[in-house]
Amino acid sequence: MVGIVLVSHSHRLAQGAAELAREMGGPDIHLEPVGGLDLPDHPIGTDAVLVQQAIERAWSQDGVLVLMDLGSALLSAEMAIEMLPTERRERILLCEAPFVEGAVAAAVAARLDRPLGEVADEARGALAAKIAHLGGTPRAEEAIAPAPEPTAQGPSATAELAVENPLGLHARPAARFVQTASSFDADVRVTNLTTGRGPASARSLNQVATLGVLQGHRIGVRAVGPQAAEAVDALRELAEQRFGDEPEPPVTAATPPPPVGEGAIAGTAASPGVAVGPARHFRPPEIPIPSDPVVDRERAWSRFEDALGEVRTELERTRASVASRAGDQSAAIFEAHALFLQDEDLLAPVRTAVLEQGTNPARAWWDSVRAAAAGWRELDDPYLRARAADLEAVGRQVLSHLVDVTPGPPVLSGPGVLLAPDLTPSDTAGLDPASVLGIGTAYGGPTSHTAVLARSLGIPAAVGLGATVLQIEEGVTVVVDGDAGTLAPEPTPAEISQARTRGKRFRALEAQARLEAARPAVTRDGTRIEVVANVGRPDDAVAAAQAGAEGVGLLRTEFLFLGRTTMPSEEEQEQAYRAVAEALGGRPVIVRTLDVGGDKPLPYVPMAQEANPFLGVRGLRLGLARPEILLTQLRALVRTAADHPIFVMFPMVTTLQELRSAKELLRQAGDGVRASGGATPERIPVGVMVEVPAAALQAGSFADEVDFFSIGTNDLTQYALAAERGNEHVAELADGLHPAVLKLIAMTVEGAAPQERMVGVCGELAGDPVAVPILVGLGVTELSASPPAVPRVKRAVRELTLEEARALAREALSRTSAAEVRALSARP
Ligand code: PEP
Ligand code: MG
């Protein structure tokens, strides 16, 4: 995504323009406002060094667009570019576009991942709508190029939509229109049918705005391309929702608005912030259905029966897994799913079609499923209506056995709040974070993989909400509150507006923290704490550098291994590690070796079924059981470390013997690389993750043989408190601020001290501002958090003195519960 820098003489103007642009482009855009001087008597002006730092923070491989207000802003921006390395200069574009309108238009275009040139063009054309509205004629450079002829081919779809919201298609509604239209594989054109203006490309905010669509106008939408129908459906839905503009609630003394949260489903807070949007179930993608008739009808029918049997087995496996994690009640839904497979109302039409007419069983089955689902959808009872989605889910499962295609990753039908049972790391591999406003899951606890992912993307999330969330109808507006851990379906207008206000306040605080993120985190009495980032996807590395991370404290290398059918080669791994190291521009990168097994199985590493996967062959245990896998990874790391500051860290270490075996493999990897003529570093620092209580208790022995410790509080908490991290029923118990966990952290620090080994924390606790003072007080000197949390963590460190933090930590260790510790730390 292209980064945007706004340079103004006034700090407040830069901030204000950025606030507007974020409002339109969403909170995820890489936008850095910079303005004013740090001189109390002369606050107006521009400083080239500050501009250079802002460009660094906004840096993206896709380039950076710089918009400036007046005279010296331009000179400062030019000087700032001079200070940057040559290879970066080429990807920075100083743009003459109007400051405010340009910022808004550029933000929307950047959010759609448009290339730098197109983002700049959108910014340049941003005055056209205003000029047209006032009846003027834009000069050539302000005019918007007319929409080129559609190049897309394939099916087409059209719709005529009424525009009922007070602002018409301007500002936010127009931005939402453009974002929705652009999320489909279709060329969408829009015409103002009331005035006859258009057609305009729905991918351009400017073009849509110049149509001058006002309240009461009608617009014509025409889409061409593979997803034409889906695009038109989504736009129709958006229009029905008044393009996201809720009517203001009528305020009367007699009918006070109900308090927020009434009717909300309670779960566990997983990632901070509040989001409002249409419910989007995370569903498998459409499967192409063959229509060619079958020759051998009996055989086709028997293949269909086999598919039903296979799905029955799969459903039973899922039922057992959910039952063991979340109880029989939660798992009952899968028994209901299995009943569909023996429902004669569904099967009889398929039998007739296949055996008597020779219809392809996939076609016949899907027709039958669709007809039955349509019947369910017509019922009055919302619970029964929701069964249609269950039926289609099972229907798809059968289809995927009948049709010889590997289904791709699940998808969302449009931007909104993602609802799912739970998200596995491989589910999320193909997820488009830009279209996920919030996340609500039925299962999972605060350190589940879903929560870790949501935090790393900065998406508000609540987990462990129970199976009720799976029954919410697609498209219904929901509010997800990532601080309270709740999800409210069909909120009232008053609740929506309260949620939006809270969301805005949260984003404003985050933006403020980001302004200071490039500076080091030093306590008020001068102790420096390293604040680094957890990186779980390649994009996180860029986000980490932009968020002010001083390095990577935990590179979760699983991203390379999950969601595929074969092992990544040594070369492929080396490339990925180099890419992360390069994104961090010379800052240290702690790479954790593969941490799979147990609850994260690899399809290409067959393993025995385990009754207690979290206590089984996972982490380093798997690496030592399959040394060829670990050796390949270590060789790729050694090669990368020849040119970059790479640190190697082993996960789930329990005994000293495991560490020694792992170090021996690292030595062999180095020998292997040298033998093949490759360059190797003089030495690679080695660390262990402290995730098993035994490692914390034995830290003193480990200290003689490692360079550093990093405490994985997610696992350490689950093992210390015997509370499974993905299980929402024990989520309250699994709190890393429990004094028992804090004592294990204190023991690790104590064990590391005689050898002066660095102790960091890379579990989710490190990103929790309430936990930061206690961790610092316990003697932790490095905190590794998700990229969006880095500025927050730095700010929390700067508010402390070491003495206060130590006193707080002593108090915390003497408490008896996590709740007491939280109350202690949150006290003003
Ligand atoms: C941890 O256990 O705290 C940790 C950081 O590792 P992961 O969450 O990847 O298991
Ligand atoms: Mg772990």
Describe the fold and architecture.
With 828 residues, this protein is an alpha/beta fold. Strands 9-16-15-11-12-13-14-10 form an 8-stranded mixed β-sheet. An 8-stranded parallel β-barrel has the order 18-19-20-21-22-23-24-25, surrounded by 7 helices. Strands 2-1-3-4 form a 4-stranded parallel β-sheet, with helices on both faces. α16 links the parallel β13 and β14 (461-463). α1 runs parallel beside α5 (99-111), α11 packs antiparallel against α13 (344-357) and α22 (627-641) packs across α23 (656-675). It is globular, with a radius of gyration of 28 Å. The two termini are 39 Å apart. Mean pLDDT is 87; it is low at 248-260. Residues 452, 554, 556, 595, 691, 712-715, 762-763 line the site of phosphoenolpyruvate.
